Structure formats: structure tokens, C-alpha cells
Amino acid sequence: MATQEKTLSDAFYETLKDIYFAEKQILKALRKSVRAAHDPELKEAFETHATETAHHVERLNEVFGIIGKAARGKTCEATQGILAEMEEDLEDFGSTGAADAVLIGGAQAIEHYEISRYGTLKAWAANLGLADAEKLLGETLEEEKRTDALLSEIAGRESNPKAQRQTA
């Protein structure tokens, strides 16, 4: 039985479904992170990114429309793994001085995954001649990069020194 050859359009659609699922899961995790964070600046960063993430989902809905497909997700094992690890870390460190540092570490793991996905999708959109999708994906990519940079700044300035002051 012959199978149909897969195309870049197929890969684009499958990856789009992956990040759509991921963004919805990340939105839930960000809401938990807001509640778990101790540092006011970190709480604010999570709140801001939760608002942005809701916009990311809206943009993804637009991209699905551009390619003429219904918006739907497919289970993203990578995101589920990172989020499960974050949950475990929060259980272990949530009541310690290292809680915010651990939250930042998990959030940055998510950001790096998203940056790689959006970078790939943006490049593929360009290759497929989907200029409107490329623009939308590029906007999200830049927001993800800014969030990652902000988390690095907060980690270096506030959370990690607090964590280091406590001894085992």
C-alpha cells in the first residue's frame, strides 16, 4: 500500500497543532505560576505573559484560518514533560527561598521550546509563501524572546541571590 508523501505544508500544520496545544497548557501553567511566585516583579512578568499567551492563541487561530484549517491541537509531549517537571520542582521547592528561581528555570525551559517552535514555523511560513502567517508568528516569536530575556534579568537580579543566601 502506497503512502502519500508528506510535504512542508503538512509539517507546518502538524507543528501548528503542536504549539496550539502547548500554548493552551502554558496559559494554565502561567496562572499557577502567578500564584506560586513570591517576588512581585516575577508575578507581574507571569501575569503579563499570561495575557500575551492568550493573544498567542488568538494569533494561532488566525494562522489556522490563513491555511484554511480548523484550529485544533495535538498533544505536545515536550510541553507536558516540561510542565510536569515544573510541577515536581514546585512541590520540592515551593516553600523555600529557591521557589522563584525554580519557577524561572521552568518558565525559561518553556520559553526556549516556544522560541524554537515559533522560529521554525515563521521560517516555514516564509518558505510556503504565507506572508500573513509569517508576520503573526514573528510577532509571537519576538514576545517569547522578550519574556525569556526578562526572566533572565529577574533571575540574575533577584531570585538567584535569595536562593543562594539559604544554606542546606
Automatic annotation (TrEMBL):
<dbReference type="InterPro" id="IPR012347">
    <property type="entry name" value="Ferritin-like"/>
</dbReference>
<dbReference type="InterPro" id="IPR009078">
    <property type="entry name" value="Ferritin-like_SF"/>
</dbReference>
<dbReference type="Pfam" id="PF05974">
    <property type="entry name" value="DUF892"/>
</dbReference>
<protein>
    <submittedName>
        <fullName>Ferritin-like domain-containing protein</fullName>
    </submittedName>
</protein>
<dbReference type="InterPro" id="IPR010287">
    <property type="entry name" value="DUF892_YciF-like"/>
</dbReference>
<feature type="region of interest" description="Disordered">
    <location>
        <begin position="148"/>
        <end position="168"/>
    </location>
</feature>
<dbReference type="InterPro" id="IPR047114">
    <property type="entry name" value="YciF"/>
</dbReference>
